[in-house]
Amino acid sequence: MSTLIVGSSNGLGKQIFNLCNFNKESLYGISRYTNTSTYELHCKKAKILKVDLLAYNTQKEFDELIAPIPSISNLFITIGGGYGVNADLPSYEQLHLLHKLNLLIPAAIIHSLANSNKLTTDSKTCLVSSIATDEVTASTAYTSSKASLNSYAKCIAKKLGGNKGAIFYIKLGAMEGSGTSFDRLRTSNVTAYDDFVLERLPYGAPMPTEDVARLLISFMGCSNQLVDGMVLKLDANESLAI
After folding, report:
1. Residue 231's CB: how many other CB atoms inside 10 A?
2. Given its phi and psi angles, is residue 82 left (phi above 0), alpha (psi -120 to 50 degrees) or beta?
3. Residue-level pLDDT at 240
4. What is the dihedral of CA 113, 147, 166, 235, to 10 degrees?
5. Could you tell me which residues are beta bridge partners of residue 103?
6. What is the spatial distance between Cα 234 and Cα 228, in angstroms, rounded to a whole number?
7. What is the mean pLDDT of residues 10-28?
8. Distances in Å between the alpha carbon of 149 and those of 65, 78, 127?
9. Are strands 3-6 and 166-172 parallel, antiparallel or unpaired?
10. Would you call 127 helix, strand, or coil by DSSP?
11. How confident is the model at residue 137 (pLDDT cuts 50, 70, 90)?
């Protein structure tokens, strides 16, 4: 069994990485790895590709990136974010940046793995989306790009018909731990953090990232029939939309 985590150096991806108990030949990570100590520690446990995925602009570049990786049983794509783009009416450049980060890069990686037969009928692919796609709680560019990811995941799960394994996605709420955006918010703007917690979080704090990671890893042990096409809303009752 082999696992690939895209976005393995921070947040949810890092927590999944830390909880994976495989030998070095079976665990792979892709990330920028801006933290040197994290990179060095992860290299002791896994095969790490240290790259800035935003610098890749063609399918060929992604094909070459994926080439050294063998067949994958479990694929976690945990990259994404708002990248500081908060305009109500974002520009083409701003929309392109966030759609590239949240949709185009994940789609290109899946394309490379699928076309090189590194995703098989036994594989499982988990894409991380956001509850922002259910209601307008985040920026226009971020929300629309994650909504596009949702549609993409549902489409390929249906159209591939299990030929490349099970494909599912989660609409994730606020998490804390391993360098998430809420870790950064708590440090940079305590007032905004406290206001969000008071207004939106019934349990008085974001979900622990480790709990989320454990749950997602558990789904990888389920049958493909159970999880294929699954949409999991995981927000600790944060959102208002049904």
Report:
1. 13
2. alpha
3. 85
4. 120
5. none
6. 17
7. 91
8. 21, 12, 8
9. unpaired
10. strand
11. confident
What is the reported pLDDT for 88? 95
Residue 69 corresponds to which tokens in the numbers above? 């990786």
Closest CA to 86 of 125, 38, 142, 133: 142
Sheet holding 72-77, edge to edge: 47-50, 27-31, 3-6, 72-77, 119-130, 166-172, 231-234
Query: Do residues 47 and 24 make contact, with C-beta atoms less than 8 angstroms apart?
Result: yes
N residues, the chain: 242
CA–CA gap between residue 72 and residue 61 (Å, rounded): 19
Helices (H), 20-134: 36-45, 59-66, 92-99, 105-115
Give the C-alpha separation, 155 to 211, whole Å. Answer: 28
68, amino acid identity: P
What would the two tokens of residue 60 be?
Answer: 């060929």
Question: pLDDT per residue over 34-55, tens digit each?
Answer: 999 999 999 999 999 999 999 9
User: Which structure tokens are listed for 192?
Assistant: 């905004």
User: What is the pLDDT at residue 231?
Assistant: 96
pTM of structure: 0.96
Q: What is the mean pLDDT of residues 55-77?
A: 97
Q: What is the pLDDT of residues 88-111, one digit of tens each?
A: 999 999 999 999 999 999 999 999
Considering only CA atoms, which of 126, 153, 6, 3 is closest in space to residue 73? 3
Q: How many CB atoms lie within 10 A of CB 216?
A: 23
